[in-house]
Amino acid sequence: MNRRYFLTLLCCIFISTALFAAEGDPISLQPTLIDVPTADTLDRYQTSFLTRAYDHGTVMETIDFGVYPRINIGVSLAAHELLGSSSSVRVLDPDFQVKWKIYDGNLYLPAIAIGYDGRRYGYGYDKNRVYTRAKRYLDNRKGGYLTFTREIIIPGLHASAGVNMSDFDFDQFYGFAGIFYTILDQVSLMMEWDNIHNMRDSRWNAGARFYLHPSLALDAAVRRIGRGNESERILQIRYVTTF
Fold first, then answer.
1. What are the chain's domains?
2. The pTM is what?
3. Distances in whole angstroms, Cα of residue 7 to Cα of each of 21, 29, 122, 163, 183
4. 228 phi and psi angles, rounded to 5 deg
5. For residue range 11-59, what is the model confidence (pLDDT) as tens digits?
C-alpha cells in the first residue's frame, strides 16, 4: 500500500474514533511526564489520545485505554519526516505499552506501578549518534519498568522515580526520576532525568503543560538539554475521553 494512502487511512481512523467518543473527561491524572512514567493510570473505560511532534518532522500517535481498574494498554505509531517537505516519509514499526498500578499509596508510602513501554525516539541515527537516515534509534525503548509516585514537600509538587530495563536485558538496568508541579490548575512545570546509566546516555528533559480545556492539554518541552545537535524541541497534545 502506498505510504500516503496508508497515512490518510490512519488519520481517518483516529479522527473517526475521536468523533464517536464522549465529550471528554477532566485531565486529573498524569500517566506520564515527558518521557518518565508515573504510577497514575487511566480509569476504566477512559481513553487518552496523545499526538507528539518532534525531531526531523516525526509525528507519533498514541492511544491508551483503561481496560480494567488500574490496568492500561495502548499502542503507538509514528511517521518519520511526515512534517516538512521531505518526500521520503517512513511509517515506523508500531509499539505498544501496558501499565498496572499495584498500589495506591498512603500517607507514608508512594503509589507503585509496573509496566512496559515500547516507544523509541530519534529514528535515523548511526552508531556514532549522527543523523544519517540510518535504520537506528537514538533512544532505546524504556522496556519493562517499575515506578513510584508521591506528592512531596508542598501541595501540588509530585515526584516520580523508578528503574527500567530495555528489552528485558537484566544486565542493563537504567533509572529515571522526574518532578511535576501544578500552578493555579492551568500550567504545570516538568523536569526529568531519564535513562540514567552513565552520564553520556542519560537525558535531561524539561517542559510545561498547559491546560487548554478540562479534557485537553498541550505540552511544550526540550529533550536532551545540553547535548548540542542531539537536543530537540517537542510539542504534544493530549485529549482524554470515555467510551
1. 3-242 (2.40.160.40)
2. 0.85
3. 21, 30, 20, 35, 38
4. 65, -125
5. 544 444 444 444 455 555 688 999 999 999 998 889 999 999 999 999 9
